[in-house]
Amino acid sequence: MARDPLPLLVDGVLLRREALDFGVDDDDLTKAVREGALVRVRQGAYADRRVWDRLPAQERLLLLKTAVIRMYGGGLISHDSAVVLHGGPDWGLDLEHLHLTRPDGTGRTQARIVHHRGVAHPTDLHLPGGGSVTSVARTVVETTIRADSVELGVVLGSHFLRTKQVNSDELRDAHTTALHHRGGLVLTPALALADPRLGSVLESRCWYMFHRHGLRGVIPQYPVVVMGELFFLDFAIPKLGVWVETDGKEKYVKYRRPGESIVDTVRRERRREILVREKEGLEPVRFDWWDMGRPEECLRRIYQAAQRRAA
Length: 311
Prior knowledge:
Elements: E1 14-15, H1 16-21, H2 26-34, E2 38-42, E3 45-48, H3 49-54, H4 57-72, E4 76-77, H5 79-85, E5 98-102, E6 109-110, E7 113-117, E8 125-126, E9 132-133, H6 136-147, H7 150-162, H8 168-178, H9 187-193, H10 201-212, E10 219-226, E11 229-237, E12 242-246, H11 249-254, H12 262-280, E13 283-287, H13 295-310
Parallel strand pairs: 4-9, 5-7, 12-13
Antiparallel strand pairs: 1-3, 2-3, 4-5, 6-7, 8-9, 10-11, 11-12
Helix pairs in contact: 5-6, 6-7, 6-8, 7-9, 7-10
């Protein structure tokens, strides 16, 4: 008689070897997967299908981490996966695989695990329930190198500097250690541009775009007083008479006042825009996520705004 494996899940995960210990055989597991009760997270590990289907990619990765740590009795979580464990932004990350660092790692991908070659450092952090995770500084550096992306390095460095999970000295030390690695040269511009004043992934991407395309004199978090309140514009370019605001969805959620709808928040933002233009003499330009794929057009709009302001 088939046994129901769902009650055997621990921390959302059931390992095949654990199921066998409790009298649930491979036929039972196969039947549970076929009927939609379980989902195979990786070879030898299962989760509740109803829970799995509702989880965002970051939380699915955490379940995969739980399964792998239980299967192997430990492991050093690193690179993209360590960013998630440290609460960092998931933009540009590989969330389909668990990244592990081990002395005999070869960079191969096997059963949803990417094995990187490396050793544990004294700064690595132990995790509750087993295993460890690379330090924030090491995580930023190694993820930037793996992706070979200055832009991702700016996003990660700025986020963790802003949240004070890392400081400039720690990033500098990790940078120095990694310079001899293949791809390490991408770190120098990335960490030079990382700035704790950047309040979101979209702001970090804009900041990178400005510098990559030669726009100088940009000031992040530019302070202005409007309607008796102190506000910070995402970016100001005083020499051009232009200010730039990013329209990421998280902004309207974060700054929505109690009892205020998203529409109310947008209207208040637009009213503020008018007052900033009148008081500061700055012409506004707004960018959203879609604009990041069109940098030349973004720069053209900035210079057009400068021309309008000068007319």
